[in-house]
Amino acid sequence: MPTVHPTLEALRSHDYASGGISRELALEATRLSGIDLWDLYALANRVRHEQVGDEVHLCGIINAKSGHCPEDCKFCAQSRHYDTGIQTYPLLDPIEMEIAAERAAREGAGRFGIVTATKALTRGAFLDTVLESVRRIKAEGKVQPDASLGIIYEPEIAVMLKEAGLGEFNHNLETSRRYFGEICTTHSYDERLNTLKYLKAAGIMVCSGGIFGMGESWEDRVDLALELRGVGVDTVPMNFLHRIDGTPLEKMEPMEPLEVLHCIALFRLLLPQMEIKVAGGREVNLRSLQPLMFSSGANSTMVGNYLTTRGWNAAKDHEMIADLGLRVACESPASGAEIA
Ligand code: SF4
Description:
Blueprint lengths: L5 H7 L10 H8 L4 H18 L2 E11 L28 H13 L4 E6 L3 E2 L3 H16 L3 E5 L2 E2 L2 H10 L3 E3 L6 H7 L5 H14 L2 E3 L2 E3 L5 H14 L3 E6 L16 H14 L4 E4 L3 H5 L13 E3 L11 H10 L3 E2 L12
Parallel strand pairs: 1-2, 1-11, 1-12, 2-4, 3-5, 6-7, 8-9, 9-10, 10-11
Bound molecules: iron/sulfur cluster.
Iron/sulfur cluster binds next to loops.
């Protein structure tokens, strides 16, 4: 009989219906390697199947205001601190956002995120335009309007978003509290955490995750997951660094595909009931192993393009999901729609 690694035995005997694994066990799991990693992926796949089922959630986004962000996040093409040569433009109008939402629906997305390169969401014409866009997309009824609009300092603004019909708000913690200062110096971890708390208090679903491959340790990755568990977020986007020329992280070593799968599996075992969304950087970091993201614990992804980089063809995503014996979540009003 083949011997089973003791860490895998401990992972298999955990009761995932009661919650995720401990920090100690997660750190042990980060040390698995070789053939044992494949058993870890398989376990995460089973936990995904048992805890959240075989449906894959799809969302699309639009970069509704590009570039000139005053913050200095070292991975970001949109920071005004770095010369990245991206196309910049001010906030789109509600009609442009509505058209983009319809395109996302045609690509099979059930959710559509309005994303802006901004430090914070404050009162004024910017907020009014966002609220109007959310109302229009909601009224159209083809996709659920979501958003990612920076830090929220006033709880009332979260309430206004909820009343306009916003479903989910994305605000990533990005990494552990310990490593955050290496990535961003213009705002604090607590400003991000408080934003998540205001969103939850307003009854908005919270989407928060991070970026991997920025030089953080495995301990930072585990602690990010535990921070998200503590907040009780709904969706956890996992981005894998897509190195952008001109940013301080442009020379970072890319992650190996098996390490990406290791991260995904670990997050599933730490956060068994959450929606684990593999988002930016999956194409360049997973390469030919993209389908295995769903066999390692993910149950969600993005379709279409990202903020400043191009994504895969949406039709290929649908084919990949069907080939794996999975199905697109029925929350997607356009899950049977024509895929261009
Ligand atoms: S706050 Fe957002 S848009 Fe601005 S630099 Fe950071 S990641 Fe980029």
